[in-house]
Write a structure and sequence with these properties.
Layout lengths: L21 E2 L2 H10 L3 E5 L9 E10 L13 E7 L3 H8 L5 E15 L7 E15 L3 H15 L13 H6 E16 L7 H4 L2 H4 L5 E4 L20 H20 L12
Antiparallel strand pairs: 1-7, 2-3, 2-5, 3-4, 4-7, 5-6, 5-8, 6-7
């Protein structure tokens, strides 16, 4: 059995609250990032603006140098954006180390409904990465990353579109490659956990429903739009929808488990 690789614990990524939920293992952190359709990327816009900037972006973990690397191995984070956006301009003008950024992702798996508002919670998976972003200038790596990100939107979509992109599309699209220096994740699963003062009260337990409402992302029936003249929805779309809906439901339902006596779940 191979060893489990983990990110180093630093001030920036070490969990201080509910430490038992934290993970620093590469596999779970990378998987949460890749399962999230939207990543929130934050950066410092510069001394003229006192507020941190946060952008919704799409991206994926991967390794151009080692394409067969799995989620448990060191990976880079590739982000897709427009050539003249502020984050791209800052990365372009940054020094040799790159633009410092934070990437965050969260998936909600359930609503945890308890006896009191204070004990309500979510079942969730969250992850953050810290690293330095550079623009990808090598055309082969850029195409590889564009394919990686496109196929994360819907599996095998790249090969079922007009590819490769033309010169204008390549020039207007920018890929950021984030060299990750640390990361962490937090995962909450299980059932309801209430304070003993409430759970031991028959008056309270006799009138309030408690439990978990599983939450999962559902892909609906494709609706034709645009100039495409293909009538039947291709199998690479229908099979992806069926697979993801089943996986997402299974994930949410599996997150609901019996809480062990004395286990802290809030």
């Amino acid at each position: 059995m191979g060893r489990t690789l983990a990110y180093p614990k630093r001030i920036s990524n070490t969990a201080n609250r509910y430490k038992h939920r934290a993970t620093y293992d590469l596999g779970p952190i990378h998987s949460i990032i890749n399962d999230s359709q939207v990543l929130h990327v934050s950066f410092n816009p510069g001394p003229e603006d006192p507020f941190p900037a946060i952008l919704p972006m799409i991206g994926q973990m991967g390794s151009y140098e080692y394409p067969s690397a799995d989620m448990n191995e060191p990976l880079d984070c590739y982000l897709h954006g427009y050539v003249s956006s502020r984050i791209m301009n800052l990365a372009r003008s940054s020094d040799g180390q790159g633009l410092p950024i934070c990437v965050a992702a969260t998936k909600v798996d359930g609503l945890v409904l308890s006896l009191t508002p204070n004990s309500h919670s979510y079942n969730y998976r969250s992850a953050i990465l810290h690293g330095y972003a550079h623009l990808v200038t090598d055309e082969e790596e850029k195409l590889w990353a564009m394919k990686l990100i496109t196929n994360s939107v819907l599996a095998n979509r790249w090969d079922n579109t007009r590819v490769p992109p033309d010169r204008a599309e390549m020039q207007s699209t920018v890929i950021l490659k984030v060299k990750v220096v640390d990361g962490s994740g937090k995962i909450r699963d299980g059932g309801v956990s209430d304070e003993r003062k409430d759970s031991s009260s028959e008056e309270i337990t006799g009138r309030i429903w408690t439990g978990v409402v599983p939450v999962w992302e559902t892909f609906g029936q494709p609706v034709p739009s645009g100039e495409g003249k293909v009538g039947e929805v291709p199998s690479h779309i229908t099979s992806y929808i069926e697979l993801k809906n089943a996986q997402n439901r299974a994930q949410a339902e599996a997150a609901v488990k019996v809480t062990l006596p004395g286990e802290e779940q809030h």
